[in-house]
Amino acid sequence: MEKLDKVGSRIKRSLNNKDRSREKGLPLTRKVIRFSSEIIKMAHRGQLQESRTLLEEAGKILREAQKSLEKYPDIYYGGFLQSAEKEYAEATITLALIKKQSLPSPEVLKVGETSYLRGMGEAIGEMRRYILDSIRKDKLSDCERLLGLMDEMYYFLFSFDYPEPLVKGLRRTVDSARGIIERTRADVTNAVRQKRLEEKLSK
After folding, report:
1. What is the pLDDT of residue 1?
2. Domain limits for position 51
3. Strand, coil or helix: what is 82?
4. What is the model's pTM?
């Protein structure tokens, strides 16, 4: 039988390596989350070039975090890295929608499938915020475009009817998105009717 001190030394060496990787990856993921929030704020303010530059930086940091944890699946899939991936996906998708670009795939973003899907669901909420700002600016054509995209994303997400351990909160996100879309549709409809009435009265 192997001596316990040798077994203990081997276990401690493994745990020390894991701990170092975790301590390296954790602050990186927090930075990605912070940057992603700032990217979305910039996008809403119309600072599209600045948000694109910060998005590229966030992507580099995320890949560094992934690399630091890839040797240890139990830490890699522990949750905090997936939260960073979700926030990064949300920021990227939000920016693409605002800039009228094609949505990137999870492979392009280098994020997990569930992180990507949840990030898309969260982006629907950001589109409501953007639409409300557009209504105030009287940019109704853009509102109708984005509302259509919100519907398309909702039905895309709705098709992923898998057990909770596989999609981890996606169903709640999708249920919330349905309500967000319906409220936004009502706001856009009222704004369009008001605009048409104003145009008739002006004639």
Report:
1. 67
2. 1-105
3. helix
4. 0.90
